[in-house]
Each structure stands twice: as C-alpha cells, then as structure tokens.
Backbone:
C-alpha cells in the first residue's frame, strides 16, 4: 500500500497530485466495499484526501466522474474536489479526491433543509452548461429497474409500465441517481458534500428527488422526510402533484425490487414503513407489493 499513489498511471491529474507524489504520503485503509476499496491519504502537511479504487469487475466511467465533479464544482455544487484519475498496476480504475469529513451525524430540521437545498442546486444547473461532458442518458426502466423483466417480478413490471405511461420521463437535468445520507459527508463546520457519482447522468429531476424522499421516509423518519420534501419543492415548485405521486410510486417500486433481490438494509419496522408509503400513494394503495 505504501507506493499506491506512485504506482497509479494517472490519465488526468492536477499539480496538487504531483506535489503529493513528490512529498510522499501515508495511507490508511478506510473500507472495502462491494465495488471499490477506499483509502485515506494523508500528506506530511496534515492534509487529507481519499483514494478510491474500483475492482476490475466494476466498470464505471471514472474519467467521466472526474470531469463531472470539476464541472459541478465550477457551478457551486458541493462535491469532492478531484485531483486525478487513472489505472493501478492491476488495471483497476482509481481516483483521488479531497477528504470531506465523516458520514452525516444527527439530523435536525436545519440540516435536512440544507440537504434538500443541495439536491435542488444540482437540479437547477442548465443542461447546456454541461454540454461539453456529455452526460450519459439511459432508458429509465432498464436502468433503474434492472431485472424487472424476469418472470418473478411481473407484478412490479406491470406497475412500472403503467406508471411510466402517465408522465413524461425527461432527461433534461443532471441527476445523482442515488442521493441519500450514505452518499453525503459532513465536515465539522457543517458543510455537506455529495459523493459517489457512479450513477450521475442526464435524467429526470423529479424522479431523483422522489427516490431521495422515499429513502428518507423509510430509513430516517416521516417528519424529516416531510421537511426535506417541503424544502426541495419550495425551490422546485413546477412539479405537479400528480407527477409527484407517480414518481414517488416509482421510487417505492424500485425499493421493493431491490428488497426482493436482497439489495437494501432491513430493520424491524422497515416493511411497515414501506407498506404505509404504498397505502398512502394513490397509485399503489390497491397493491400488496411490499408484503
């Protein structure tokens, strides 16, 4: 691990990264995720950074993420500052970014509002300002509902297709794709930073918001979720109630699909919360998909 920074063949890098390589750094393992290993990098001057290395079976476009982070920073969105990206000796992709604090701590109303404003600031960026990237765009159902075509998920597939016909799925905003507390960091001064842009793309901001809202309803509390919803919509008040209901229903269905495939954490009251969301949604109340 001692020569990890030096052994990366950097495709794009900043002068700061060159400086770190010259001065030498110390490395400290942070966590080993399913798709990537994260290492904390510390300089002799006491600065801290994060090196993320994706395993070879994971194939994200790290070069795109590097350029997207720079573009978002230029437009005032609070994201990690990228210093470089490239390939390590095994051929795995790697990226070095700023270290932006710890996982978000105890929530209060002010912090929830700040989280909503952060997502809102992302969704208000005009797409033409990012035309130089360009942003990838995917088929909505294929991307967010992988495996839904399997026979055992016929009920979810039919519900998704019925809902998609009721709204226009747009691709006119940059979206995070998985905006939730685990993808936010907080510094001691309260500054929040959005991380993990693997799913960054041109997509529908209403769905991106609905997914965040549903996750907060399930894993945090209905009170904080309502605060998040109100704060976000105060800056994005062009979304009609019918559209909100549809996208929140789609977000619920995505969670249910992930749950069937073992891809979401479950607590003692998780399913009760999901069933309550489904019951209260005009498009899902007649279904028993979460049971």
Residues:
């Amino acid at each position: 691990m001692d020569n990890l920074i030096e052994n990366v063949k950097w495709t794009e890098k900043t002068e700061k990264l060159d400086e770190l390589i010259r001065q030498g750094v110390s490395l400290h393992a942070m966590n080993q995720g399913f798709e990537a290993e994260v290492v904390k990098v510390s300089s002799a001057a006491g600065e801290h950074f994060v090196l993320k290395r994706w395993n070879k079976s994971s194939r994200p476009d790290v070069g795109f993420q590097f350029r997207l982070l720079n573009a978002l920073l230029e437009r005032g969105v609070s994201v990690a500052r990228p210093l470089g990206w490239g390939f390590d000796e095994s051929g795995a992709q790697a990226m070095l970014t700023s270290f932006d604090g710890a996982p978000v701590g105890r929530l209060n109303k002010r912090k929830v509002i700040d989280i909503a404003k952060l997502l809102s600031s992302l969704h208000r960026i005009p797409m033409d300002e990012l035309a130089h990237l360009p942003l990838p765009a995917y088929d909505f159902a294929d991307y967010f509902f992988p495996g839904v075509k399997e026979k055992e998920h016929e009920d979810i597939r039919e519900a998704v297709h019925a809902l998609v016909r009721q709204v226009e799925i747009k691709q006119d905003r940059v979206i995070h794709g998985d905006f939730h507390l685990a993808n936010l960091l907080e510094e001691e001064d309260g500054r929040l930073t959005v991380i993990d842009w693997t799913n960054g793309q041109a997509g529908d901001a209403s769905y991106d918001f609905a997914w965040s809202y549903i996750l907060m309803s399930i894993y945090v509390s209905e009170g904080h979720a309502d605060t998040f919803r109100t704060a976000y919509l105060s800056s994005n008040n062009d979304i009609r109630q019918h559209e909100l209901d549809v996208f929140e229903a789609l977000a619920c269905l995505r969670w249910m699909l992930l749950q069937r495939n073992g891809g979401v954490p479950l607590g003692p009251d998780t399913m009760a919360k999901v069933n309550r969301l489904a019951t209260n949604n005009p498009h899902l109340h007649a279904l028993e998909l979460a049971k």
Notes: The CA atoms of residues 192 and 256 lie 29 Å apart. The first helix runs from residue 4 to 7. The chain has two domains: 4-99, 103-280. The longest strand covers residues 25-32.
